[in-house]
Amino acid sequence: MYRQFIEDNYDKMSEILNCLKIGVYITDGEGNTLLLNDESCKTGGLTREETVGKNMRQLETQGFIEESVSLEVMKSGKEEAMIQNLGDGDKVYVTGVPLFEKDDIDIIINTERNITETLTLKKLLEKNSKVTAKIREEIEYLRKQSSTALGNMVAEDEETKRLAEKAARVAKLDTTVLLTGESGTGKEVFANFIYSNSGRVGRPFIKVNCAAIPENLMESELFGYVGGAFSGADKNGKMGLFEIANHGTLFLDEVGEIPIHLQSKLLRAIQEKEIMRVGGTKTIPVNIRFIAATNRDLKESVARGDFREDLYYRLNVMPIELLPLKGRKKDIKALAAHFVSKYNKSYKMDKKISNEAMSVLQEFDWPGNIRELENVIERIMISFDDNIITKAQVERAMGVMTESVGMDLSNLEGKTMTELMDEYEKYILESMLAKYKRASEVGRALGMNKSTLSRRMKKYGLER
């Protein structure tokens, strides 16, 4: 009855539904897509060509959607609602209502509302209410720190101590710091250390992973926007992360991932101490201390034209290059003991590590650096019941880890660190794509949103 009416009056129904400012997506009782309006195309990011005539199970399997409210309605036979996460970071509240022909579901009408701005505002209000508590926590943190210059940073290797002492000196100044080094070498730890020893402690400390923000949203996330700047924008506008970090510190992790067309705006913020919101005409003064980090060779990026030379020199005022964990045997020992203590507290254990086990850890190359070492320690602690971590346990855990990193590392000569990291990233993506059927499952396993995963797959020619 309802389905036949839609099919007989498709054009008129489309015209009527396109006047609505909420998304409407209609399927039949078996989950086949019948009709969606323009707002649904905007909200869900799917075109009519991709959806009309397709079954919701098919769209789920192909990774176009994570889950379908229509399928839930088909199971329960009643109204259902859910929040869907889109690839660009937005969240949509979807309600599905069944209409029956006798005892069978004839059609399911889904309505979609983008609730991202509402959730963002809620988070900002919650954050503002916690400012006083945050300041107290920061003061207490500083009070508990050791009186030595290194505070509670784990640094036993002489070169690491030298870098930590350099960071402690630089922390007192408002100069821009560029932290470089392989992934997992502790760049965020150093950023936290610099902030905690700076004159801006207790003020905002905003951390931004530039690689995790979809490129089409990066400008509005960083610089904010004025009301009506683009379709779907909040009519009152929105503060960007630069404004939120005003009078505090902004940590730009993976700064090399910022698109070239936005680098001039970052340069202006550092150099002129002012920004402009998307769609705005007025400059906004900002007073920010910048800390940037990257695992890429920015000089090579400059040579390739991927990174502005003037921005590179603005960021590279005080460079601190963190060393790979390989060869820092004293640090490996101290870090391993630190992680054992950390997970003893987390899991209410009382484990110790034997000298033989420590020797095995110190001899390993650690391509994943500190992050990989922590992963191995946690894995051992939750995998074995013994209170002493033994050499055999370490070797077993390391064997699992070595098998998981199955790249051919025999031919490294003539390749830059950036090229090697790209090869490693491609290998991981290929392995995960072989393991999982859907790209959405790969994204969840790697902690990547759909947009970031799509960019990386396109970069390495792995599109499905």
TrEMBL record:
Keywords carried by this UniProt record: Aromatic hydrocarbons catabolism, ATP-binding, Nucleotide-binding, Transcription, Transcription regulation
BP GO annotations: regulation of DNA-templated transcription
Residues in PAS domain copies: 9-56
InterPro entries on file: AAA+_ATPase, AAA_lid_NorR, Homeodomain-like_sf, HTH_TyrR, P-loop_NTPase, PAS, PAS-like_dom_sf, Sigma_54_int
Superkingdom assignment: Bacteria
All copies of domain Sigma-54 factor interaction, residue ranges: 153-382
MF terms in GO: ATP binding; DNA binding
One family name in Pfam for this protein: Sigma54_activat
Claim: Membrane is one of the keywords in the record: no
NCBIfam families, sorted: sensory_box
Protein name stated in the entry: HTH-type transcriptional regulatory protein TyrR
Lineage: Bacteria, Bacillati, Bacillota, Clostridia, Eubacteriales
